[in-house]
């Protein structure tokens, strides 16, 4: 069970709906994002053409999640049922080692909750059969949610339909992120990692 | 669900509070004390109201989650056939806008000097009476010309409220910052040329692009970025198109998402679009790539032109036939022939050529068009437009290959400088040459809404003669109209002419200004001039959801209008109709349609005959509706119009609409296929094809109709009411010529950079700058600077610069980016609501407002009187930091976080205008 | 990333305390400077406890520390255990010294406490080794934590022992070696971090000059000028502490996400610790 997001950057239009929908759904304070959109560019490519793409980044649902390894209390854990990396707010002591251990910096410190928070893949919605807020709101139909191990899922189908050369992940430093980004060379060269 | 959570009676008692002196932008503690926590749903369960967004003009279907009478969440509605459930940041901002602490809560009267932001609370009754008294006095002393009404504000669905009011009032002037600078040029020019529709995606056209498997093969986005102007509708559409393999050409000075993903992107120099259009025309004509049969049969291009009048000959002029028939050169007989509509198989008209007619040289319209673009080689165009000649060729070839399943969607960019008429002329010529008209895949389709511009509430002046239309002797006095007659298409006056009159009293002195919009000082060109002149008005009334610079700097009375979540409306979405349902009504706010109605009622009560008639359905007509004395009446009217226009049922009330919508009024298949080749359908009365909605029944790429309009007021010699006006001082030309921007980087050494503008996904016009979740993403005015220019100016990303034009200077934060070309800069409009409460509220529109820089004086576009918002020249200089007091850090916006409150019933709960009975 | 001062103070003070007690343990085994042992132990203990408390203030709530002690594999647990065990050794040693009882047992506790304390200075640094942060993920980092703690702890001890210190030569040699290595590791770490942060002053002024050069000079002078031992060591100690502090601050300043090194620089925008 590898529930995760797949994001088609060929489609993504950098409208920031996912970032705002995440905030309105999860009531996230000002200055904090569980899901942030970063413009990767513009750059000038080998053919002398200007190119740019937008990279939404949130918890990458790593298979070998360093946040879980470093957590002294087990507050960062993998939910057995869904396989999703989550944070047990009750157990978090605020040592913030997980924030340092995350290669993507997607964990944030909540002053109000006094614990570390991050994308939960909108468990409150997915458990009711809905899509995560960012997927539902996406104005480019570029975000997919589901189980990579289920070939019928939206994510598995999105990856299967893509040219293997266009399937990317953020840099893997042994943490094995499951989130896949789809980006064709014709739109822009991938700048997010070594694969 | 139930939105009425307290009794009106109970509310009235508590609301009869003493006047409260306070700054309108002060911290949003409501002075309204709810009488009871009479929640309809104390259980806390969530209900969903299906509604429609109005954070911009797109009307995406939304689902509003309600808990205990309060809106708690907004999502997209998957049933919407255009947005498919998507929702953009502006739509998501709805709740932070609705419960924003800055909301205007009740009518206020200014007590300090203008600009000091000191106010006292007054009742709706006092406000309406005070306004009506002033109007009635001015009407009796000065006549209708004393009044100026304006609208704007972004997303306002009651665009025609001021026109409607002025029509009944009997004269005066209407203006809007968009209008000649936004959409009017396209909305007027394109349908008058192609007899079908304009191609503004943002305004609901180009519906061809939304089908699951669109027949379109090539889309040209000219000065438009649907992904940014409406991510929820246009963004979804563009993503789907590209995924379907539709090829796109994007013409934009900015590397937008749609430019980044285009097959060909032309990073054009701002203000040079018409030059590029002329080069495409030349390529198409020189290479004979045009659709010859369509041009011959269904356009006016074979018609012979009277070189003296610049108009195509009418057969009657030469004694050859009727005054509706054009004249062609018949190749068979080598002679001039009248061409009866639609054509005569015995005649073989010459498309291209110069002949002798009546002893004078005469070219075909096609030849005139060919001569008109002859100079525009790719090389010359590349030099003028700052784009690569090979890229121009690649772009036009894609367009040609895709045609006729192709089209050019024209955006707002070209509306914003003095070639505002010529650009829509140019793209319409290109689409007509290629036969991209009413065929599958074309942008030009007769699928536009039955309601002009999709607005249900209309003026009395648009469907021919009406007892409540403005009389000729007042219409002719509209400021700037005679010079810029195409303004008449929207019954508008020219903004510079209006402000000149206010300033000088010539040709007459306007005295009262009623405005429903956001921030005129952030939206009008050369804001400093507008602010100074505006203060000469005797009474200024401003209606909006929250105070802006306009309220604080200029207004004498401010009236709280409703947010879209508090209003009722309806709108088509492809083959479906959706409803906007009021989910709550807060404070003493009200839909502006009621404010105009209440003023109308108060004037009727004072004896204004036409306003008395405006409450009489027999005069006003059921179709256009009398004014309303209650919101329920208005809602029933909306329902009646939707029921009768779309569902074939004249009996609809709001209840019926509420139970029915959203619903499909026809199948998607019919919606798509019903309109193709509409012009070929047989008119049962004549037995001939119905043709196009032009004078000739054909597309008129040779737009002599515009020339005639300049001389008379209409393409066929008269306006919608049959009135004919004196000619403008210069003739409007039938074909577009390129004019170098007045401030040109080619010659300007003092201000070396060209400034353009363009949308971002966070705001619509001047709206939403007080929404914390949006401001934290885009907190300040940003200026894009190419790395080369940044190096020259010694600035890096994040530095602050002073941006200066010949009108003034503002501050902006630098983004160094290849997204803009060397020599060009880009900014979006900005103003700072956080400064309204400062010692100097004027700074709210001064410190970051791009319209301090823009050019509000001439030369203007001849047809529309458009001034220059894009393509002005500026210079940048590094400064130490941001203007003092502006909010930048996310935590700064904490005071604007929503403060949810319970429904009050709005202004109707505290004000009753009384029965209208003037028999 | 923002400097996490709680953790800087934690590693600085526990490092100095650990090496102070380690130096004391060396003398205890040799039977030197016995009369200063009790006082020096108390000072080391206080620093160790204050340092430990500083680390707790990093948590959302101090009481949360108890939860951390439930998971014996975490870095925090190991650090807390070392702080606790070395403190216990110090306390037992102090009691035994005070009572003059069980001299062999006292030596055992001294050595145990010294080894644990010295080890803590390395392990506190090694907690920061993680794949995600490329600049930190080098053994030079914990070696720097260790080496910069050496002069801070030993000079503290010798300053407490004072001008009549018996046989300080070996300790001075170790101290000087530590100071030199501290400066070297500081240079190797900072210059190899790949960070764009400007740490010139922290590195050359703090780690090299203050933390390296001054203790080395003081140490060399102290060989000959025994009468100025306390002053020289006090000066060296203050400078060594500043150097060690600067090294730790540099670590935070040179935070570089691994992912950011391969062209995703804006990802660091997320880091709001």
Count of extended strands of chain A? 10
Task: Report how far apart the termini of chain A are.
Answer: 23 Å
SSE topology string of chain A: EHEEHEEHEEHHEHEE
Major beta sheet of chain A, specifics?
A: 4 strands, mixed
Radius of gyration of chain C from CA coordinates: 19 Å
**C-alpha termini separation of chain C:** 7 Å
DSSP summary, beta strand count of chain C: 0
Main β-sheet, spatial strand arrangement of chain A: 8-1-10-9
Shape, per Cα inertia axes of chain A: globular
Q: Which class best fits the helix and strand makeup of chain A?
A: alpha+beta
Give me the strand/helix succession of chain C: HHHHHHHHH
Give the uncertain stretches of chain A in residue-range form. Answer: none
The portion of residues forming beta strands of chain C comes to under 5%
**What is the second-level CATH architecture of chain A?**
2-Layer Sandwich
Q: CATH homologous superfamily name of chain C?
A: Formate dehydrogenase/DMSO reductase domain
The total tally of domains of chain A equals 1
What's the CATH topology label of chain A? Alpha-Beta Plaits
How does this structure look, described?
- The complex is a heterotrimer of chains A (195), B (919) and C (273).
- Chain A is α+β, with helices and mostly antiparallel strands.
- Chain A has one domain: Alpha-Beta Plaits.
- Helix content of chain A is 19%, strand content 23%.
- Chain A has six helices and ten strands, in the order βαββαββαββααβαββ.
- The longest helix of chain A is centred in the first third of the chain and has 10 residues, at 17-26.
- With 919 residues, chain B is an alpha/beta fold.
- Among the domains of chain B are: 196-287 and 375-433, Dimethylsulfoxide Reductase, domain 2 (3-Layer(aba) Sandwich), CATH 3.40.228; 302-363, no CATH class; 753-896, Barwin-like endoglucanases (Beta Barrel), CATH 2.40.40.
- Chain B is built from 30 helices and 28 strands.
- In chain B, strand 18 (539-544), helix 20 and strand 19 (557-560) form a beta-alpha-beta unit.
- In chain C, helix 1 (5-30) runs antiparallel to helix 5, helix 6 packs antiparallel against helix 7 (169-191) and helix 6 runs parallel beside helix 8 (200-224).
- Chain C contains nine helices and no strands.
- The longest helix of chain C has 26 residues, at 5-30.
- The chains are: A alpha+beta (195), B alpha/beta (919), C mainly alpha (273).
- The A-B interface holds A 10-17, 19-21, 23-25, 30-32, 41-44, 50-54, 133, 136-142, 187-188 and B 73-76, 83-89, 92-93, 95, 227-228, 231-232, 235-236, 238-240, 242-243, 255, 257-258, 260-261, 265, 267, 761-762, 772-774, 776-777, 817-819, 889-891, 893-894, 897.
